[in-house]
What we know:
By secondary structure, the chain is an alpha/beta fold. The chain has helices at 11-21, 35-45, 61-70, 88-96, 109-120; strands at 2-7, 27-32, 49-52, 78-83, 101-104. Strands 2-1-3-4-5 form a 5-stranded parallel β-sheet, sandwiched between helices.
Amino acid sequence: MKKIVIVDDEIYIRALIKETLEDLEEVIIFTADDGEKGIQLIEEKKPDLVLLDLVLPIYNGYEVLNHITENDLDKDMKVFLLTAKGQDKDRVTGLKLGADYYVTKPFDPEFLLQKVCEVLNLNLN
């Protein structure tokens, strides 16, 4: 089973992502609504993919991403930053810190589904 952790403080974004991905076979989805809970889930579940917002309570997405890379949790893990922060400097910072993709909100759920399937080597049903 592939594991995905969604870390976003906006409940409707978490719900949209979960609904978009829920029909994928062999995928388990976990969610967190702040950076601290996100780090705990990432350490506990060791997901294959993290979908991470940048603007989060407690620890922001950059801090979560930094924790992932500093603790070598990213060896078999991909990280997508999903954020409303669309400036080039934000994108560059996220990618330099170790993110694999940077997707700005609002995003196309179908695009996200395709990218997730591509990264996790899953077939679309």
